Structures are given as structure tokens and as C-alpha cells.
Amino acid sequence: MNSKTRIRLQLFLYSVILAFLLSLVTVIISKGINNFSIFEKSFITVFIIFLLVSFLSLIFFTNFFLYKRVQEISDQIFFNDSNISRTVTTNMDEMLEEIKKLDNERKSELIEMREQENFRREFIGNLAHELKTPIFTSQSYILTLLDGAYKDKNVNKKYLKIAGKAIDRLNLIVKDLDLITKLETGGSNLKKSKFNIFQLIENVIEMLEISASKKNIQLVVDSSPNQSLEVYADKEKIEQVLTNLIENSIKYGKESGTTEIVVQEVMENKLIIRVTDNGIGVENKNLERLFERFYRVDQTGNRSTGGSGLGLAIVKHIIDAHDEKIFIESELGVGSEFSFTLDQAN
């Protein structure tokens, strides 16, 4: 017996019992008024009439008013929800199940909204902090020059250079924000082509040699027996990925340290590129958030190493746009390894 039949049977029995009691009370009251015996034919006739009228009235009320109201409640809960495809029902068990599912979905949505709100609040706070420093620096030095310092030849050029560096940093942040917005919205379409991955790595190393030499960091490429490996990807975007990862290893690398770039064939038509350093490393609790925009491992707010704070977030978006994977392994005080996969060209 299904739940709908069971409920209807229960309502039928309740209606019979209630109709019987109502009829009995009504006829007894009538007996007191008309003074006839319960064994008289008229009493039985009146009782049966009252019983039928009461029963039919209750059945009508139950089916018309009660089920209609349940239908209205079901409509109100589910009908206007475009995200839920459900058949409206008056089956109590089914409707309770639907309400429980809806409640769980709403709780999940609420949790997700709260997480997004926290992320938005933190992002805006971090963005304001990143923009405030270069704006305040350039403003301070320019105002100092306007107040008369421009007349002093010993400081005017120095102040202009500092203000110029602050504006360059501001421009870098805006440029990276624009790029990451395009990547998120799909506005920056990939232009895939075949290219030699080792040649691209060598080009990036040449660009970053001066930065590495300042900290006496060696940039080493693993000497693979197959130096002609080609990948199929967006060359410009992958160059940016390699640049950001190697630059990151230099920023957080130890003096006289090493950054090693390794290319490996992991399976058919798939390569993995590893960028490993022996720098300061990252604690496990911070690993999951490294790819967030402006996230700081150093919570003091100091960014002495420069950069826009968006490098790893851009890397993650570019790799995701290629439908590839990026991984990170790190140990505090030992070093870090960032690795990502790419399709090997046929």
C-alpha cells in the first residue's frame, strides 16, 4: 500500500468515526427536544440521514479544501523555482522528501554564498591594500615636488624616479587584473600551436638571468635526452606561466640557491613540466590558497619582493583554460615544486 492510499484510508476512517459521533450527538439532542425513543423508526432514519450528511461533508472538505490547500503549498514551494524540476504532488511522504531536499539545497547555497561573500570581502580588502601603497607613494612624492622640492636639483629627479616606480607597480596590478578578468570570462581566447618546450624554457631563463644573478641563484634545465619535445598549447600564455613560476622561485629562493626546470613524459601524448627550488617553502595550511588573488603567506602585509600579487592566480587560470592540471608540493625551510601538464604535439 503506497503512502497516498494509506493517507486516503486514514482520512476515510476518521471521517466515518467523526460523522458517527456528530450524528449521534445531533440525534440525541433532537431526541431530547422531540422526546422519541432510540428504537423508533424515526430516530434511526434521522440518525442515518445525519450520518450520511456528516460523512459526505467531511469527505468533501477533506478532498476539496485540505488537498487543495496542500496543492497550493506545494505550488508555492516548487512551482516558481526554475532550478528545480519536480512534479507537484499532494502525496505527503513525497512532498516531505521534496521539502527536505529543497532545504538541503538551500543550506548548501547559503554556505556557498557566505563563502563567496567572505572571499569577496577579503579580495576587496587585499586589492585596496595593493593599490593604496603605490598610489600613496606616488602622491606623496609628487606633492612634495609641487610644494617646492622640484627646485632642489639634488632630490627632484630622485623623487620623480620613485613616483615613476610606484606608478609602474600600479600599472602592473591593473594590467594583471585586466588579464585575469579576461581569463575568467573567456575573453582571452587561446591560440594553440606546436612549439619546442625546451626552446621556450631557455628564452624565459635568458630574460630572468639578471634577476637570478642578484641573489646568485642558478637556473638549471634538466638535460633530457629528447631536446626536441614539442607541445600543443598557447605559446604566449605558457611563456607567461613559466615566467611567473621561475620568477616566483627567484623571489622566494635562498641566496646562492638553485631553481631546476624538468620536462618529463608521463604518459602517451602528455608532458609534465616541474619548476623546483630550494627556497623558504610554504606551510601545508597555506598550500590550498596559494592560487588565490593577492593571497599572502606572510600575513604581516609586507611585500618586499614586489609583483602584482596575481602571478600564481594567472598561472592557475591559464592552465585551467588549457584543461590541464597544476600541482604544488612544498615543505617549510626546504623548498617548493610547481608542476603542470601539457599536451605533447603529435
Give a concise summary.
With 346 residues, the protein is α+β, with helices and mostly antiparallel strands. Helix content is 60%, strand content 14%. It has helices at residues 3-34, 41-79, 92-146, 156-185, 197-214, 235-251, 284-287, 311-321; strands at 192-196, 218-221, 230-234, 258-267, 270-277, 326-331, 335-343.
Describe this structure in words.
The protein is of the alpha+beta class and 346 residues long. It has 3 domains: 3-90; 121-185, Signal transduction histidine kinase, dimerisation/phosphotransfer (DHp) domain (Helix Hairpins); 192-343, Histidine kinase-like ATPase, C-terminal domain (Heat Shock Protein 90, 2-Layer Sandwich). Helices cover 60% and strands 14% of the residues. The chain has helices at 3-34, 41-79, 92-146, 156-185, 197-214, 235-251, 284-287, 311-321; strands at 192-196, 218-221, 230-234, 258-267, 270-277, 326-331, 335-343. Strands 2-4-5-7-6 form a 5-stranded mixed sheet. Strand 6 and strand 7 form a beta hairpin. The radius of gyration is 38 Å and the shape is elongated. The model has no long low-confidence stretch (mean pLDDT 77).
